[in-house]
């Protein structure tokens, strides 16, 4: 049995996954729109991972595989559920290798948001390394919450690529109810958690800024 590592992103965790009751595992639900969402988690050992989604309209269980491929093996698991319906409650379980975690028989719950079309582009970006400051933190997961003086966004996430780079499109950010866009500005704060499994983690804050076509990247991040 693969044990799932517990991790947390600031105070929004209780809002985002208020149905998670299991004492042994927690996961993150990010990038929620009207038609998709991302489910991610960490395991102590490298293995395959997928999500078993109960479709309330079709009365069937759909299997979604890791964004990096059906046969991807690792300790970071990152799976986008697509083809969903807006304003719909979904139930799902996660599978790590042969172990199925169904939240103690209750399944995990998530709700899609409204149909919104973002405009423009605002993409912060940077590079992430392991503790040796040389090796790219490929396949680490970057979690981002945007905050201004009055509110914070629903969480976004992205994967670190083969060159150690990450970027996130902040115009896609939504308010915590996922029914309205979160209007990001250059005075906002990005609260970031990087979860690399065995590679390490880091948590930090940045002032929001666009990468300006790769000319204005954040200072490289080193996992600990």
Judged by helices, strands and strand pairing, the structural class is mainly beta
User: What proportion of the residues form beta strands (DSSP E)?
Assistant: 35-45%
Number of helices: 1
Structurally, how many domains make up the residues? 2
Oligomer: single chain
CATH topology of the largest domain: Immunoglobulin-like
What gap, in angstroms, lies between the N and C termini?
27 Å
Query: CATH homologous superfamily of the largest domain?
Result: Immunoglobulins
Which CATH-level-2 architecture of the largest domain? Answer: Sandwich
Biggest sheet, open or closed, and with what strands and sense? 5 strands, antiparallel
Question: Mean of residue pLDDT?
Answer: 89
According to DSSP, the number of beta strands is 15
What best-fitting shape do the alpha-carbon axes yield?
Answer: globular
Taking all Cα atoms into account, the compactness measure Rg is 17 Å
Provide the succession of SSEs: HEEEEEEEEEEEEEEE
Helix residue percentage: under 10%
The low-pLDDT segments are 1-24
* Name of the level-1 CATH class of the largest domain: Mainly Beta
Annotation keywords:
mainly beta; Immunoglobulin-like; 2 domains; 5-stranded antiparallel sheet; 4-stranded antiparallel sheet; 38% strand; globular; disordered N terminus
Summarize this entry quickly.
The protein is an all-beta fold and 224 residues long.
List the helices and strands and how they pair.
Elements: H1 13-16, E1 28-30, E2 37-47, E3 49-55, E4 60-65, E5 74-81, E6 89-96, E7 99-101, E8 108-111, E9 125-129, E10 141-147, E11 156-159, E12 165-167, E13 189-195, E14 201-207, E15 221-222
Parallel strand pairs: 9-15
Antiparallel strand pairs: 1-2, 2-5, 3-4, 3-6, 6-7, 6-8, 9-12, 10-11, 10-13, 13-14
């Amino acid at each position: 049995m693969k044990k799932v590592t517990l991790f947390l992103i600031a105070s929004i965790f209780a809002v985002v996954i208020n149905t998670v009751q299991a004492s042994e595992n927690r996961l993150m639900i990010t990038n929620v729109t009207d038609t998709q969402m991302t489910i991610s988690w960490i395991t102590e050992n490298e293995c395959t991972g997928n999500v078993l989604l109960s479709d309330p309209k079709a009365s069937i269980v759909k299997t979604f595989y890791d964004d990096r491929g059906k046969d991807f093996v690792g300790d970071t698991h990152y799976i986008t559920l697509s083809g969903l319906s807006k304003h719909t409650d979904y139930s799902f379980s996660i599978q790590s290798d042969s172990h199925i975690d169904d939240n103690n028989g209750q399944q995990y719950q998530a709700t899609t948001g409204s149909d919104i079309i973002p405009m423009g582009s605002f993409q912060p970006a940077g590079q992430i390394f392991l503790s040796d400051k040389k090796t790219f933190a490929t396949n680490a997961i970057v979690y981002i919450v945007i905050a201004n003086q009055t509110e914070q966004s629903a969480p976004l996430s992205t994967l670190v690529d083969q060159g150690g780079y990450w970027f996130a499109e902040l115009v896609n950010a939504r308010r915590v109810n996922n029914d309205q866009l979160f209007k990001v500005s250059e005075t906002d704060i990005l609260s970031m958690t990087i979860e690399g499994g065995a590679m390490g983690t880091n948590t930090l804050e940045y002032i929001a800024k666009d990468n300006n076509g790769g000319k204005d990247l954040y200072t490289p991040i080193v996992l600990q």
